[in-house]
């Protein structure tokens, strides 16, 4: 009788089981497509590894392309919630586009996890939004400490993209920490997204002769800048943030990228957790390549954190419950490291410093908060 009751319960559970959607909103085309494509690879693999909830439900992902556009980001979030009934959202990669999704998520009370939106203030006054990445203030100040303490640089020039809050926030954090360490910022120079000619800026830097150039811009502009700088004979060491972490930067910059340092979230040669090791092994098996991109790890972590919250809410699966559990995330052993998420949705986590050597990203150091 006991076996019959158990079988009946299992059969009833199977019959009641359903598909549950997570909406994924990424720039899969346009100028920042490399970020979105890498993150999506991680989300897809994470979904393959873990998709069954304790109540028998299957977690599915529904993917929409933002084309790197703010309006497309907002429209995608609206559609995923209204048409696809997504219980939660993951996206975007840029802070400005993520803010558009956050607005929709907050209005509809649906949890959003951002894999890589690092702007310090984007979670201010938000209840249903969170992230698995660090903030720009931590990223910018960490490289400043590394440049001062480890590399012993005494002077720097900062090159910022005046059209990107990401770049401006990182620049402020770097300057504050670098000067606090006794370093001198000789000049702050501005460029804009889409610029093609940096000769005038490079000429100014040559005259200033700094020890270091901090350039927290996205990979397209960074690659053009370093190529033109090296052609002009400027040999000053340069560094950036995670905007150059995708290998597209190396492909575009070629030899000019050599010795470039940058901050990042993850290094596949130093897996910090068991999930990290398992994920890397699965990725290398399915992709037939050793290198696991950082944004792939961050996309996976956004999914795994949401899936963990959904597991805890399986007996009463609602967006409200999932959101509450996400904001209680404590010592989560993610692909990229240990992640804690507070009530504001901000993540506390470490970062890594890398350097490009022989056209490869090489791990140099880890910095804890």
From TrEMBL:
<dbReference type="InterPro" id="IPR028082">
    <property type="entry name" value="Peripla_BP_I"/>
</dbReference>
<dbReference type="Pfam" id="PF13458">
    <property type="entry name" value="Peripla_BP_6"/>
</dbReference>
<keyword id="KW-0732">Signal</keyword>
<feature type="domain" description="Leucine-binding protein">
    <location>
        <begin position="20"/>
        <end position="358"/>
    </location>
</feature>
<dbReference type="InterPro" id="IPR051010">
    <property type="entry name" value="BCAA_transport"/>
</dbReference>
<comment type="similarity">
    <text>Belongs to the leucine-binding protein family.</text>
</comment>
<dbReference type="InterPro" id="IPR028081">
    <property type="entry name" value="Leu-bd"/>
</dbReference>
<protein>
    <submittedName>
        <fullName>High-affinity branched-chain amino acid transporter, periplasmic Leu/Ile/Val-binding protein</fullName>
    </submittedName>
</protein>
<feature type="signal peptide">
    <location>
        <begin position="1"/>
        <end position="17"/>
    </location>
</feature>
């Amino acid at each position: 009788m006991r076996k019959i009751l158990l079988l009946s319960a299992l059969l009833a559970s199977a019959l009641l089981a359903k598909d549950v959607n997570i909406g994924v909103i990424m720039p899969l085309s346009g100028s920042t497509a490399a970020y979105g494509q890498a993150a999506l690879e991680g989300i897809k693999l994470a979904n393959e590894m873990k998709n069954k909830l304790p109540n028998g439900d299957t977690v599915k992902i529904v993917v929409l392309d933002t084309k790197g556009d703010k309006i497309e980001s907002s429209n995608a979030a609206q559609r995923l919630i209204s048409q696809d009934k997504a219980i939660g959202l993951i996206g975007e990669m840029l802070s400005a586009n993520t803010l558009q999704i956050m607005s929709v998520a907050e209005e509809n009370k649906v949890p959003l996890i951002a894999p890589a939106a690092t702007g310090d203030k984007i979670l201010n006054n938000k209840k249903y939004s969170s992230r698995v990445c660090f903030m720009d203030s931590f990223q910018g100040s960490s490289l400043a400490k590394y440049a001062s303490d480890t590399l012993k640089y005494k002077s720097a020039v900062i090159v910022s993209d005046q059209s990107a809050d990401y770049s401006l926030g990182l620049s402020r954090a770097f300057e504050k920490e670098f000067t606090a360490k006794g370093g001198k910022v000789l000049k702050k120079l501005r460029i804009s997204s889409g610029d093609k000619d940096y000769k005038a800026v490079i000429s100014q830097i040559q005259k200033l002769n700094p020890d270091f150039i901090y350039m927290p811009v996205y990979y397209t502009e960074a690659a053009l800048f370093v190529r033109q700088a090296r052609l002009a004979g400027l040999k000053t060491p340069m560094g950036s943030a995670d905007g150059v972490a995708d290998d597209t930067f190396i492909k575009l910059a070629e030899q000019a990228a050599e010795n470039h340092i940058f901050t990042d979230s993850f290094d596949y040669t130093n897996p910090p957790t068991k999930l990290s090791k398992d994920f890397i092994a699965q990725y290398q098996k399915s992709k037939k390549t050793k290198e696991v991109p950082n944004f792939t790890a961050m996309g996976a972590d956004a999914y795994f954190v949401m899936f963990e919250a959904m597991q805890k809410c399986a007996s009463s699966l609602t967006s409200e419950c999932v959101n509450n559990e996400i904001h209680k995330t404590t010592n989560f052993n993610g692909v990229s490291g240990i992640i804690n998420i507070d009530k504001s949705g901000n993540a506390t986590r470490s970062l890594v410093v890398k350097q490009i050597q022989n056209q490869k990203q090489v791990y140099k150091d880890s910095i804890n908060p």
